[in-house]
Amino acid sequence: GNRTTGRKEASTMSVEHFRQLFSAVKPDFSRPCHRDKIHAVAWNCSGSLLGSCSADKTAAIYKLTDRLHKEFSLEGHRDSVNQLCWHPSDENVLVTCPGEKLLKVWDYRTGPRPVQTIPTLGDNINICWSPDGSTIAVGDKDDLISLIDVKKWKIIQKKRFNSEVNEISWDRKGRHLYLTNSTGCVNVLEWPILAEAIPALKAHASSCLRLSFDRTDRYFAVGGSDALVSIWDVSELVCVRTYDKAESPINSVSFSHDGLLLASCSSDPFVDITHIESGETVHRLDIPDGALHVAWHPKNYLLAYSRDKKELDREQNQISVFGLQH
Quick one: pLDDT at residue 4? Predict the structure, then answer.
């Protein structure tokens, strides 16, 4: 038989499989979490804990049981906490990135006091941890990227970029550091020298906002202000497909643990879950005000997301987990 038809059948079968799987899931579990906009949600490496951070100057850690149980708040930031990042292999350690000239490192075992405070050179907006755990990259409002040696908690390298840097991430093997920027490009950098490994990848017509790598190291996704999501082959560094599911700038993109699905959100009233190979939507979560951040669990089909809240009432901003079997 024709190999391409066989492949197509396999891919449509799995689309149906996911559609059935998600249509049978009970409604998401939600809980109020922060007093202001939630900037990020992230699972630790084992999936036992979920972290969140907010414009309310706090971050928080939750344990997933039959519900989302808040363990404690991480306080003492003097500004909005713009991002957080878990250690790639130590499930207890995370770093928070407030809009001030420092980072705070926390250890779940020692409770809600930072174990380390690292001075930085500017007001931080984005952060990531190298896959080998040795280095933290942080970007600030002046588009300066600094590399921090985790053994010494000191800045070992820095470089200023002349366009707005929106998100930073290493690929899963830690070969290169990638940046999305306001010119519609993705920069691919050697590290620790922070020199361009290849010419910038022209990815979108306008600003590249979001960036996510799949755990199998096959693809990365870029979300743009043009409302498109592009999927790139990591080894070839070419765009293999583009999805136009949204009508407003992409807020967040995340791959499922097996690299088969991509969740994305914007200020449109839904979270989209797309089957990567076919480009078909397998599920949509209805969210009236849109979602700010999506994060797939590292081992299961569990999707955490934070809801945007446009109304100015006092009710706290919520985090939801979809796919959780009660």
Answer: 44
